[in-house]
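Narrative of accomplishments. A recurring question from our advisory board has been how the design workflow behaves on a single, concrete structure rather than in aggregate. To address it, we present the structure tokens for one chain from the evaluation set, followed by the sequence designed for it. No filtering or post-editing was applied between the two.
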């Protein structure tokens, strides 16, 4: 069965996700990983299916921007599988994505998860993001305490969710 791709929710890519996903597969198969420069190089030919990934101003700074755009697209492209239900209603289920690996490129999440060092790095990045979310929640909690006491119950539930996430993360180490 052919792989199907879409972008993450709220991401508007400049090329079709399917075309980009297929190019990412080819690059990863050929090179063992995907780096932003590889994606930019694959998009450079006028007849490339992902040529419109970014603008083609030849200034040096434009190349850096292209790599930034490519990284955003790499992270936002997920492999999906369509599962038909009993009622013949299709459901989309994301099953694979690419994450940053320790060698500086991007690899499928299942490849990174199988490598203890890459997995550890991913877990650290995840914990950093959770800490950032927790700090945002605390700021919101402090602001809501004085202004929106009716949100207290919801904020307590969020605090419990963070506690549960911490417990789950502890189990993974």
């Amino acid at each position: 069965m052919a792989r199907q791709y879409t972008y993450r929710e709220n991401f508007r890519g400049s090329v079709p996700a399917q075309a980009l996903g297929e190019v990412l597969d080819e690059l990863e198969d050929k090179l063992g990983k995907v780096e932003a420069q590889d994606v930019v190089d694959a998009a450079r030919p006028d007849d490339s299916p992902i040529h419109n990934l970014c603008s083609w101003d030849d200034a040096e700074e434009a190349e850096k921007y292209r790599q930034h755009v490519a990284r955003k697209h790499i992270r936002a492209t997920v492999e999906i599988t369509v599962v038909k239900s009993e009622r013949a209603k299709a459901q989309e289920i994301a099953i694979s994505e690419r994450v940053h690996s320790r060698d500086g490129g991007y690899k499928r999440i299942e490849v990174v998860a199988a490598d203890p060092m890459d997995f550890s790095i991913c877990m650290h990045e995840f914990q950093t993001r959770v800490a950032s979310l927790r700090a945002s929640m605390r700021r919101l909690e402090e602001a809501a305490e004085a202004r929106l006491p009716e949100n207290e119950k919801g904020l307590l539930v969020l605090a419990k969710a963070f506690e549960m996430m911490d417990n789950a993360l502890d189990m993974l180490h």
